[in-house]
Fold this protein.
Amino acid sequence: MESAELFSEERSAEVVAASLAATPDPRLRRVLTSLVRHLHDFVKDVELTEAEWATAIGYLTDTGKTCTDTRQEFILLSDVLGVSMLVETINNRAGGGLTESTVEGPFHMVASPPRALGADIAEDGKGAPCLVTGSVTGPDGRPVPGATVDVWQANDEGYYDVQQPDVQPALNLRGLFTADDEGRFWFRSIVPRHYPIPQDGPVGRLLEATARHPNRPAHIHFEVSAPGYRTVTTHLFVADTPYIDSDAVFGVKPSLVREFPTVDDPERAARVGLPNPFRTVNFDVVLRPAGAHAQED
Ligand code: BEZ
Ligand code: FE
């Protein structure tokens, strides 16, 4: 056997990469080979100690053990390391005025209830009332009638319904809307509050060890889809929320931040079925036609 094929500190990555050369699936071969190179580079860069390696294995083991049917600690770890947003962004390059995407998050765990346009999704009526309006168009500005607009959000204390099954009505602050003939949608809700991501597991320990806060800025989740268009999963962020510049999962993109101005107009309030005064926000969503590539701005 040639000595070049044996493992050594200097040639560790090449030797392991060579062992992958016969992987039949070319994509798997490329991904694993690159992963091995970067992992070996990383270990050499920091000169990882055996104790640190054992700590890392223990940490990943705990992360796996924290996962349940309703909790995915590995995705949360990917979120706080910015990997979820990087994968999301690489695979959904927008440009050309298309609505940018952001992470889906773990709280879309139940199907949103179909609701009529104009419905109030705040089943318990708690919080600052808000009228949400918007439109769905293609990049040419043509409306997308009948687009599906799925929304979910936290309440004014920063909790989703599924986190407070004994406090909030089921399906509170969720709704599945169908845009009208001109691609418009509107519904009543409340202004959401910022909230912390789960901190009672390995990800919480990582945040604490790195002196990071666990909070996400206030947002409303949107998933907008229509036949012939690529679905966009995104958020609408409240401009004046705390943590808009330091989202624990790096989800904020400037194009997704909106003011929620207060309207003091009793007649309009009566017309839209909200108490006066109320907040408003508009979110125009631009979908990418299926098969179209991203344009540079
Ligand atoms: C969310 O916005 O619901 C979320 C996203 C990532 C991690 C935790 C929560
Ligand atoms: Fe959220």
User: Anything to note?
Assistant: The two ends are 55 Å apart (CA to CA). The chain has two domains: 12-48, 73-286. The chain has a mean pLDDT of 95. DSSP finds seven helices and eleven strands in the chain.
